[in-house]
Amino acid sequence: MVGLGRMGGNMTERLRRDGHEIRTFDPKVESTAGTLAELAGQLEPPRAFWLMIPAGEITENAFQELLGLLGDGDAIVDGGNANFRDSQRRAGEAAARGVGFVDAGVSGGVWGLENGYCLMVGGDERPVTLLEPVFRSLAPPDGYAHVGPAGAGHFVKMVHNGIEYGLMQAYGEGFEIMRASGLDLDLEQIAGIWRYGSVVRSWLLELLHAAFEAEGKDLEQIAGYVEDSGEGRWTLFEAINESVPAPAITAALYARFASRQDESFAAKVSAALRAQFGGHAAKSG
């Protein structure tokens, strides 16, 4: 396991609990190896390396270094949120050296250690078959699938995260409407009962109820600033490329952008125009 952060560390522990012998490398925490080269020397062929590190330059550098260390029959798994096109390219580069490459979309967050991780796996049959015992240990029952060729795992995870954006935004808007109603609604109570029998019940709703329990009904200690890690944008790029309408995911992504503005210049423009054409009073800044 390369990368022992919130995800990689818990995944390593879950594998150990299920009887797997793991070697590790992470320069920021105690590991069995101090370098990737040392890590490669700690394993017997066929060797498998799971990258659980941030997508982008860090993953690319680790992948290229591993290619120089590995040989025929070895395998690399990228479990981060890489762009699926990068995964397709890496699979081709790995295959040219006889190394298997698997792109694994991983969902489960910090709860995965106990509950298991949903795994969406892409790649050739040989490395996937080699690693299937690992996948089945990490996933809960029925929570793992080989979804297609190289790139398919990260593509499915990309769309999964786009859907997640829409679900989160719908919950957010619904609860804001209830909060603004003037009916003094107990949002924690409502989130609680919706967990049972409701058609909108979900794990996200369970987490929202837990957040109300921990932070209070107004979520006072949480700033309304929502980041995005890239997958929602990539989902929209692919929707545009394929001419597939995705209005809910689009709106959810733009709502995240809006959450980061202290004041919207576009709103200022709209207010100024209303004052100009209609004589509507504009509030001073």
Low-pLDDT segments, ≥5 res: none
The residue-averaged pLDDT reads: 93
State the secondary-structure class. Answer: alpha/beta
Strand order of the largest sheet: 1-2-3-4-5
Q: How is the main sheet built?
A: 5 strands, mixed
Q: Provide the gyration radius in Å.
A: 23 Å
* Structural shape: globular
- Characterize the quaternary organization of these chains: single chain
Approximate strand percentage:
5-15%
Q: What's the tally of helices?
A: 12
Number of strands: 5
| Order of SSEs | HHEHEHEHEHEHHHHHH
Q: In angstroms, what separates the terminal alpha carbons?
A: 53 Å
Helical proportion, percent range: 40-55%
Task: Write structural notes for this entry.
The protein has twelve helices and five strands. β4 (118-123), α6 and β5 form a beta-alpha-beta unit. It has helices at 6-17, 36-41, 57-67, 84-95, 112-115, 125-138, 152-179, 187-193, 203-215, 231-241, 247-259, 265-278, and strands spanning 48-51, 75-78, 100-107, 118-123, 144-148. A five-stranded mixed beta sheet has the order 1-2-3-4-5, sandwiched between helices. It is globular, with a radius of gyration of 23 Å. It is α/β, with parallel strands linked by helices and 285 residues long. The longest helix is centred in the middle third of the chain and has 28 residues, at 152-179. α7 packs across α10 (231-241), α7 packs across α11 and α8 (187-193) runs antiparallel to α9.
